[in-house]
Amino acid sequence: MKVQIICIGKTAFSYLDEGIDLYEKRLKHYLPFEWIIVPEIKKAKNWSADQIKQAEGQALVKIIPSDSVITLLDVKGKTFTSEEFASFLNTRMISGVKTLSFIIGGAYGFSPEIYAKAQFKISLSKMTFSHQLVRVVFSEQLYRAMTILRSEPYHH
């Protein structure tokens, strides 16, 4: 199974890039993994949140592979413990999913079109994190899940 994280825009801080790079290198030892960065919408300073979500949604639809199982990282999603998330991944792996796409929305979340395409929604916490910080936190949780599935000591 290939895992991809699709997100809107580049990160703004080098410390986030360092964290992302660290977990990307680690994850590649366990499974095919890639980041897909959708460019931010340009000239949208005077747009409403709904207009931005709609434009980002249209850009995401063009990027998401047609054979992908789509999971949104969303405040309205289901929360998991790390072990439960590892089990979620394992279930997708053994069921023959070819590509599992995790999507991190922009600052305003997702358009209705993207919600309609998603098979799953996951929340990392009841707290709100910046969409850029979520990249590092979720990368680490993916890595942690893989170590749990392999019974490696990282989780402890």
Automatic annotation (TrEMBL):
It is found in: Cytoplasm. It comes from the Bacteria. The keyword Transferase applies. InterPro entries: Alpha/beta_knot_MTases, RlmH-like, tRNA_m1G_MTases_N. S-adenosyl-L-methionine binds at residues 73, 105, 124-129. One of its GO terms (cellular component) is cytoplasm. Its EC number is 2.1.1.177. Its main location: cytoplasm. The keyword Methyltransferase applies. One of its GO terms (molecular function) is rRNA (pseudouridine-N3-)-methyltransferase activity. Keywords: Cytoplasm, Methyltransferase, rRNA processing, S-adenosyl-L-methionine, Transferase. It catalyses: pseudouridine(1915) in 23S rRNA + S-adenosyl-L-methionine = N(3)-methylpseudouridine(1915) in 23S rRNA + S-adenosyl-L-homocysteine + H(+). Homodimer. Belongs to the RNA methyltransferase RlmH family. Specifically methylates the pseudouridine at position 1915 (m3Psi1915) in 23S rRNA. This is Ribosomal RNA large subunit methyltransferase H. It comes from Balneicella halophila. The gene is rlmH.
